Amino acid sequence: MDTIFSQCMTALGSPTPKEEEALEFCVRNQIAVVLFGTPEYPDSLGRLFDPPLVLFVRGSRDVFQELGHPISIVGSRRADKDGISLTKRIVSTLSHYNVTFISGLAFGIDAATHWAALRFATGNKCPTLAVMPCGLDTIYPRSHEKLSQTILESGGALISEFFPGTQIQRHHFLQRNRIVAALSQALIIVQAGKRSGARSTASVAADLGIEVFAIPGPIGNPLFEGNHDLLREGATLLTEISDLPHELKIAAPPDLGVEPVHEQVCDLLREQGALSLMNLQNELARSDLSEILLELESTGSLVCLPGGYYKLN
C-alpha cells in the first residue's frame, strides 16, 4: 500500500492536504487505489474523453479482471412493482451466463439490480459492481449500507472516482453515470422518466458505441417516457427477456448444469418458512415457477400445504 500511496502522490503532481489525507484513509481502510495507465485500470474507461485519473475500489483490487460479461442495468429511482419485477427477470435470465451486473446503488431499479444479482448470480467472482457518486468513506443513499455490505461480502465491489471525504454534489451523479455506461458491454434501461438520470447514462453509452436496450411501457405511464424517447432515438427494443443472451451474443458456460433456480426456491423456503406462489413469484420473477415447484414437489423436496403455501419437506 505504501508503494501505491507513493504512486498516487506522483500521479497527482502536487496533491492538496485533503487529497493526502484521503489517500492515508485508503491505506488504513484497505481501499484499493487504481491509477489510470496501470494494468489494473479498466481498458473500457479509456474510451471516455475524460477518464478518471484515479479509481477507488472497496473489494477486490482485481475486480476489473473478474467482471465476466459486464452488463449495466439502470432506471428510475421511483420504479414501481412492474419495474422491479422486470429487473429481477432480466437478472435471473442473464445470471447463468457469467454476467457481472453494474448499477449505481440508487433507489429503485439500481437497488433491485444489485439485490437480484446477489440472489441469482451464484458462482460469479464479482456478481455485482456499484459505482458511487461519493467517496468510499460514506454510502449514498445511507439506507443502502446493508446492501453495500452484502455486495462486499458476496465478492462484489464498490468503486468511485471521488476521493474519500469529497462532499457529494449534484454533478457527481452525471459523472457516476458515465462510468456505469463505459464499463458495460451493453446497457439495459428498465424504467426511465423523461428527465431520468438513466437518460444521461444511455447517452454516454450510445456515444461510445455500446448497445442500449429499452423496454417499452404502457402509453401515458411517466415511468416509461424516457424509454420511449430512447426507442425513437435508436435504442434496441427489448420485448422478450429470454432473447437477451442471444441479443448480447453471450454463451452459457459449458458446465452450466442444473439451473440454480431450484436451489434458490429451497433457499427462500429455508430462510422464510412457508411461502405462497405469489410470494415466490415476487422474489424470483420466473414465468416457469409453477413447473419448477411441481418438479420439486415430485422429487419430495417440498410439499404444498392447504391454501397454496409451499414449505421444505
Task: Indicate the percent of residues in helices.
Answer: 25-40%
Give the CA-based shape.
Answer: globular
Q: Name the quaternary structure.
A: single chain
Number of strands: 12
CATH architecture title of the domain at 66-128 and 168-248: 3-Layer(aba) Sandwich
Radius of gyration from CA coordinates? 20 Å
Poorly predicted sequence stretches spanning 5 or more consecutive residues: none
**Strand line-up of the largest beta sheet:** 1-2-6-5-4-3-7-8-9
- At the fold tier of CATH, the topology name of the domain at 66-128 and 168-248 is Rossmann fold
Q: Determine the N-to-C terminus distance.
A: 51 Å
Main beta sheet: strand number and arrangement? 9 strands, mixed
Number of helices: 12
Structural class by SSE content? alpha/beta
* Overall pLDDT: 88
According to CATH, what is the class of the domain at 66-128 and 168-248? Alpha Beta
Q: How are helices and strands ordered from N to C?
A: HHEEEHEHEHEHEHEHEHHEHHEE
Q: Approximately what portion of the residues adopt beta-strand conformation?
A: 15-25%
